[in-house]
Amino acid sequence: MNAIASQFFLVCYSLVFLFQGGTCSEAEHKLFSMIFSKYNQYIRPVENVSDPVIVQFEVSMSQLVKVDEVNQIMETNLWLRHIWNDYKLRWDPRAFGGVEFIRVPSNRIWKPDIVLYNNAVGDFQVDDKTKALLRYNGDVTWIPPAIFKSSCKIDVTYFPFDYQNCTMKFGSWTYDKAKIDLVLIGTTINLKDFWESGEWMIIDAPGYKHDIKYNCCEEIYTDITYSLYIRRLPLFYTINMIIPCLLISFLTVLVFYLPSDCGEKVTLCISVLLSLTVFLLVITETIPSTSLVIPLIGEYLLFTMIFVTLSIVITVFVLNVHYRTPKTHTMPHWVRSVFLGLLPRVMFMTRPERDHERHTGSRGPAQSCVLRNPAYFPQHLIKQQSLPGALPPRTPLFLSTELNILGQVAKVGSSFPCQEGRCNCCLRQCSSKLPTDRRAGNAGAGVGSLGVNVFMLNTCHINFD
Q1: Scanning 143, 229, 270, 325, which has its CA 20 to 30 A from the CA of 279?
Q2: Is 307 helix (H, G, I), strand (E, B) or coil?
Q3: Which residues on neighbouring strands pair with residue 404, listed in sequence order?
Q4: Going by CATH, does the domain composed of 236-322 fall within 1.20.58.390?
Q5: What is the residue extent of each domain of the chain?
Q6: CATH of domain 53-233
Q7: pLDDT, tens only, 284-337
Q8: Model pTM?
Q9: Residue ranges of the Neurotransmitter-gated ion-channel ligand-binding domain (predicted)?
């Protein structure tokens, strides 16, 4: 019995619901037919022609899609909220089954032609495929979504730590202030439904109303302008661009710590130069192609590239000097003056001989090194006696033969000069005679068949210090 009663109750409830739904649907059908039977969507909804249509306007941002620095375009996803009153769309809810709201296609009613003035693409108007909400008192609410590409002047001076100010200017394209008066809802862009961006952060987005008179027309036009202050999030560029660039720049300094015998000095410099060139190309693709502003990071990379280029030139010069030998080149006088005379004094450096004198005391007359003209050996000192074979260059040679020859030279008042990098020793004119080796035979024995009168000690390094 209870089951039969429950089934009867469900059937009655369903019939009542279907009856009421059918009544509402029929009421809306009658209301729609009544409203649009004599409605003209091309006429402004005002009872007096001199009265303006008050349109309340608000922008809600859903997403900051992209900021194109190269083309200077900001792409945003916006919801434009329009609210106005249309006296021709009023009805009595009691006459239509208590219906207070109705949704109608937006192309069937009059709409304000509000567009984005600084649009960067050809389509200036929003899509009218969305429906509008009508209230029984004539209030119309229309919130069409749209993706706008607005022009934005990008300043990349402090890239990637830059701030940008992009504006969006909305207003009626054909109606002046006497026909449509815009009223700003709120003071900023509505960000309640905003989807956070991974590259930009919105600092502020205030809105302002302006009344402007253009040169083309006598009327005054009203617009609402929103200023979008955004800041770039620099973490991505810091990790992937700035830190590697700084590390590569430090490698330029390390080039000068490599020894000259290492053959990778120039290779390292060229590798650093190529790496900096790649980073500069990446920045060029990111910033706008303009000559008005150059980012600081671009100037830094350019300066570093110049520095690396100079380091390559200096490295080549150093290697050229390093591989010069006394057998192939003669040290110029200006090189000796600059690098052995001027630079040591500037860098507070002293020659090794002076350091030795500072620790051992000043030398006496008998210990001084007399530098005179090159020693010319008399012909009677040149005998047919050969030097030991396979003698390596600059090997200390303290043989009795040489010591005796030096003694003979001391008698004639000559000495060996430290001149032109060809000889690295000088003869001290001592009060006593040079020592001789009794085992070497005749003290007047000379150095084997030399064929020249000038004795250049290229193969001996006699250091009396």
Answers
A1: 229
A2: helix
A3: none
A4: yes
A5: 53-233, 236-322, 365-465
A6: 2.70.170.10
A7: 777 767 667 788 888 888 888 888 888 888 888 888 878 888 888 888 888 888
A8: 0.61
A9: 29-233
